[in-house]
Amino acid sequence: KTQETLLEVNNIEVIYNHVILVLKGVSLQVPKGGITALLGGNGAGKTTTLKAISGLLASERGEVTKGTISYKGESTAARDPAELVKMGVIQVMEGRHCFEHLTVEENLLTGAYTRRDAKGVADDLELVYSYFPRLKERRTSQAGYTSGGEQQMCAIGRALMSRPETILLDEPSMGLAPQLVEQIFGIVKDLNEKEGLTFLLAEQNTNVALRFAHTGYILESGRVVMEGLAADLRENPDVKEFYLGMS
Ligand code: ATP
């Protein structure tokens, strides 16, 4: 299938605190309806790339100093996260970030706080519960007392409540047992296939990410060093040796 590019990052440089150059010319394209993986080790610049897209850099004293980012052909420069959400893009931050003192359901509803369509919100809550039955079981539990996997589900569910078109998912596998990682990636795949959601996901777990993604980019020290179809990257000897540990 031929795919429209939803998100286009063109040669961006990002600097923190006016001095620390972290992204040194990153370009990537996210096709509509695809799962795109952003791979690379610790500190390669994955999180920074996602934050540059979602408007979250400013709060970290980071700045895009070169290059452009556009969503559906419209520049996202100078837009804050709330404006990006309106455009259809939302980031699920690393570390899950649930409100610990709120219940699971209250957490989910915070994702819909700008919406005025009560019926739509109620329907979307049921939609989230259909993908994450575990969250329904835990809906009256205080989020702080739920497991890491449940909190990751809650963070994704909350993002879904804003009715996004594109989800930027930062390190969904972090700190989770392999079985849960499979489960969460399986749900991401279902959301992609059944709801048509587009994903850009940052992962250190190359193995799992390349099994679920369609295309991938590998970052090293703020540069894209490899890109291609996930199936091709999986077979690439360098990827096998350096990222899949199969030399
Ligand atoms: P990780 O998996 O550890 O999150 P990453 O690939 O997502 O890795 P980034 O978090 O984007 O990498 O970090 C890239 C580089 O930018 C690192 O060297 C990091 O120390 C630096 N960095 C990140 N955030 C800031 C900040 N707020 N101020 C200064 N430097 C930062």
TrEMBL record:
GO biological process terms held by the UniProt record: L-amino acid transport
Keyword ATP-binding attributed: yes
Matching CDD domains: ABC_TM1139_LivF_branched (cd03224)
Record-linked InterPro entries: AAA+_ATPase, ABC_transporter-like_ATP-bd, BCAA_Transport_ATP-bd_LivF, P-loop_NTPase
UniProt keyword annotations, A-Z: Amino-acid transport, ATP-binding, Nucleotide-binding, Transport
One Pfam family hit: ABC_tran
SUPFAM superfamilies recorded: P-loop containing nucleoside triphosphate hydrolases
Every ABC transporter domain range: 7-246
Keyword Transport in annotation: yes
SMART domains, sorted: AAA (SM00382)
GO molecular function, one term: branched-chain amino acid transmembrane transporter activity
Domain of life: Bacteria
Family: Belongs to the ABC transporter superfamily.
UniProt-recorded name of the protein: Branched-chain amino acid ABC transporter ATP-binding protein
Source organism per UniProt: Pseudaestuariivita atlantica
